[in-house]
């Protein structure tokens, strides 16, 4: 009986596809406020079959977890300032959201080219 993530190695043609999906798939999962699900599932399924896919999925997963933590901190700051923090937090969230989209696109392009990408300001929980 095989365990998740075990099995034969992925063909090179599929490696780039799954690595790209680990990054760009967060846009779909983000509609449900769970952007981390796509890279998590890809990491769990393919970590033993492709080092390239594993690295890309882990990087994307760590970035999504970091974004979730930064968002939680922003919400707490707004709450403890009784809403006055909104004047600072909302512009930062807009800038952060645009920056997140840009780096996700850059990571997807890097994965499609067979290159690794390191997201900025990422806390690396999963290795």
Automatic annotation (TrEMBL):
Main location: membrane
Pfam families according to UniProt: MamF_MmsF
Topology in membrane: Multi-pass membrane protein
Alphabetically ordered keywords of this record: Membrane, Transmembrane, Transmembrane helix
Segments crossing the lipid bilayer: 20-46, 67-86, 92-111
Subcellular location: Membrane
Stated name of the protein: DUF4870 domain-containing protein
Source organism of this protein record: Kribbella rubisoli
């Amino acid at each position: 009986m095989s365990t998740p993530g075990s099995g034969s190695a992925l063909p090179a043609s599929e490696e780039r596809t799954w690595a790209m999906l680990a990054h760009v798939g967060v846009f779909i999962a983000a509609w449900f406020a769970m952007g981390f699900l796509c890279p998590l599932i890809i990491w769990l399924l393919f970590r033993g079959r492709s080092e390239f896919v594993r690295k890309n999925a882990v990087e994307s997963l760590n970035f999504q977890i970091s974004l979730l933590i930064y968002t939680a901190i922003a919400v707490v700051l707004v709450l403890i300032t009784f809403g006055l923090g909104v004047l600072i937090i909302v512009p930062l969230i807009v800038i952060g959201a645009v920056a997140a989209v840009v780096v996700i696109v850059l990571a997807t392009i890097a994965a499609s080219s067979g290159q690794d990408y390191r997201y900025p300001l990422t806390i690396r929980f999963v290795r």
